[in-house]
Amino acid sequence: MYLFGEHAVVYGEPAVPCAIERRATVTVGERADDRQRVSAADLTLDGFTVEYGADDATPDVDVPTPLVEAAMGYVDAAMATARDAADRPDAGLDVTIESEIPLGAGLGSSAAVVVAAIDAATRELGVDLASEDVAERAYAVEKEVQSGEASRADTFCSAMGGAVRVEGSDCRTLATPDLPFVVGYDGTSHDTGELVAGVRALREEYDFAYDTVESIGDLVRRGEDALREGDTAELGRLMDVNHGLLAALGVSARSLDEMVWAAREGGATGAKLTGAGGGGCIVALADGDGAKTALSLTPACDESFRAKLATEGVRAE
Ligand SMILES: Nc1ncnc2c1ncn2[C@@H]1O[C@H](COP(=O)(O)OP(=O)(O)OP(=O)(O)O)[C@@H](O)[C@H]1O
Ligand SMILES: C[C@@](O)(CCO)CC(=O)[O-]
Hints:
Elements: E1 2-4, E2 16-17, E3 24-30, E4 36-40, H1 65-85, E5 93-99, H2 109-124, H3 131-145, H4 153-160, E6 163-167, E7 170-174, E8 181-185, H5 192-205, H6 207-229, H7 232-248, H8 254-265, E9 270-273, E10 281-285, H9 290-296, E11 303-307
Parallel strand pairs: 4-5
Antiparallel strand pairs: 1-2, 3-5, 6-7, 8-10, 8-11, 9-10
Helix pairs in contact: 1-2, 1-3, 2-3, 2-4, 3-4, 5-6, 6-7, 8-9
Residues 6-7, 9-10, 108, 150-151, 153-154, 192, 196, 275-276 line the site of (R)-mevalonate.
InterPro entries: GHMP_kinase_C_dom, GHMP_kinase_C_sf, GHMP_kinase_N_dom, GHMP_knse_ATP-bd_CS, Mev_gal_kin, Mevalonate_kinase_arc, Ribosomal_Su5_D2-typ_SF, Ribsml_uS5_D2-typ_fold_subgr
Active site: 154 (proton acceptor)
Cofactor: Mg(2+)
């Protein structure tokens, strides 16, 4: 989840994502043959569940094929980089994905799945990669699958845990403050690639959009100071401004605006959309139950939950 800086991070501005305790679990077992089988038991969207195998010509599913193809793109590429890291190009793998993270909703579900898949597959093939190496390979996978449009933010954060700072290829972990986050989810998903392309087009066409991206960078630097000083009032104010700047770039949605306002009216110190936008999740900084209750009473909000910061990144269980 992004405290600050999504979208602008694609153009080299800094961003501060934070890992929360919602995990993707990937189990990998080596096969006796050279085939690949993937089952994503809980790849759910709008109430559908899909299970598919890499060796099935036509997956037996009741969801749009593009969704399955998109999921396979990430998982295939993750397995390929794991086989490459282990120098075992012909290894056959059985992969099972279980994820608690809503898809395409701004919580970095693809990064979590790719990071966990690379970590589990390399371990199964006898290689113990450092979390930083898992992060770098996961970034390459996201970049490839998202046609060159990805920052290192989601993957580095998923791999390392806690709060991190990403600016271009410079990725660092930050001292993790214990901040009270509440997430509101509208139950929908977005296409990250389309939203990133929309911002790119706007930024190329209008100077003000170009400047807005730079302003987000300035805001993130101020946010880092506030984080260091533990100044939650300032963090909240900057989250509100960050939401406004993202809205100016065209990536908010009525449901996201409604949830942001509900959280604020429920006493949140600040609230913003998180991730690519268009629909999905907002994050609020909020002590007490007011913001969560306000969200649960908002028709646009499908689910709200307290998001505990995960200090640990990818791990073997
Ligand atoms: N449990 C899962 N099993 C298989 N594939 C998954 C799973 N969760 C996510 N994915 C893949 O990741 C895609 C969603 O990633 P995408 O980058 O579009 O959104 P996100 O990471 O959830 O949101 P954002 O980029 O805004 O943080 C899904 O369409 C699917 O291809
Ligand atoms: C919109 C974006 O900044 C975040 C999506 O999770 C894209 C990216 O950083 O790859």
